[in-house]
Amino acid sequence: MEKEKLSKQETLALRKKHIGPSCKLFFKSDPLKIVRALGSYMYDEEGNRYLDCINNVCHVGHCHPHVVSAATQQMAVLNTNSRFLHDNLVIYAERLTALFPPKLSVCFFVNSGSEANDLALRLARTHTGHRDVITLDHAYHGHVTSLIDISPYKFNHPGGDGKPDWVHVAPVADIYRGKYTDKDYTIEQLSEKYADEVKMLCQKSSKEGGQVCIFFAESMQSCGGQIVFPPGYLRQVYKHVREAGGVCLADEVQVGFGRVGSHMWAFQTQGDDVVPDIVTLGKPMGNGHPVSAVITTREIAESFGATGMEYFNTFGGNPVSAAVANAVLDVIENEKLRDNATKIGNFLMQEFRQLQKRYELIGDVRGQGMFLGVDLVKDRETREPATAEAAYINKRLKENYVLLSADGPYRNVLKFKSPLVFSLEDAKELVSKVDSIMEEMKQVEHCVNGVVKENSATEKSSSKSKRIPNGSQNEIQVTV
Predict the structure, then answer these.
(1) pLDDT exceeds 70 at position 435
(2) Residue 187 Cα distances to 183, 229, 230, 231, 426, angstroms
(3) Is this structure's pTM higher than 0.85?
């Protein structure tokens, strides 16, 4: 393979010079230079292999040969404006819509999840004639202006302008650390209480004259900390929103295409009768190729068309994009990746719950399929988030060639979202390394008045310098 043209330092220097400073890197204090990848592994410029537990983009594995072949073969023949007729587009649309409930039968093809969600908002406003949006706290739906406006993950954080008056924020149905928790209520009560919060916002919108246009939510919330809604929640919410004259959207950009294992789409886990009016797709659809879609009903599509304004997207659904997307479905089906998501997800849940019995640091383990979160706490009773500890674990994992991230409003949830080709051996490697790091942390007691005490197990170990979280945003130097 050809040697990298630039050293890592030169690459970083050019990035700092020419790329906008707000463009975020993973591991910003010591970013990785990744030069190739395959399956569930990524490789840096020195040939080090990293286990990828971050990428929900390369859904069927990095550089999958079937997907690569489909792209290169079609690119060698034709790639052009999507306003010409081409078989790839319509064949894929037929195949994709067959995976949804019958009423979701019309596609709009675009280039990214952000573009899909922006178009979905236009569709909903045109169809309902209403303005107001109900979103969930901590939600993120994309980087364009219209979506920053409905993403508390952005507008409530540094640089954000706060909530527009036409946006109503409902508490996310987080039964572990949300407004209502499993400490005080049953699962059935939690579902109803969180749904009632949406009902109250529908009533508020009507009283203020805005009228609810759309309930805009991921089917399972990612940036909020890998939140799985209680059973029946979406069924009740959709009922309240539709009674108020709005429509319901399922954002499947991060959780769709079989990530949950049991179903192709995460909204289906809430029941066969739970069917949104609009679904948005993105990241995994092209396995890293920029293709995405909005799936909706015939009625909503016709309302949008009736305005007389043409809609076109130069590259959305072009021949190459459609070929790639079709190949991704081939791999999901032929390699039974939904079954793998269930198998590996169940194994990881079981293993992380075993670690939970050994380490007080683990407060909650949740998720489904290959959408998992490990909520770290300083105290299981108060559920105070262990933010510094999560950052430390991710740093140590990187040093041990495993890439994982942390998210949630307190950045204390270890967030697992690997490619679906993740193997049992990969899962065992992840669990083993998390276990070792947590054991390492356990060997050092937390600071008491600035003094670190070592327990007997630590005293017997060989001395080497480590930095261990002290329960705050800072770290302390100790010998372990």
Answers:
(1) yes
(2) 10, 10, 6, 8, 33
(3) yes
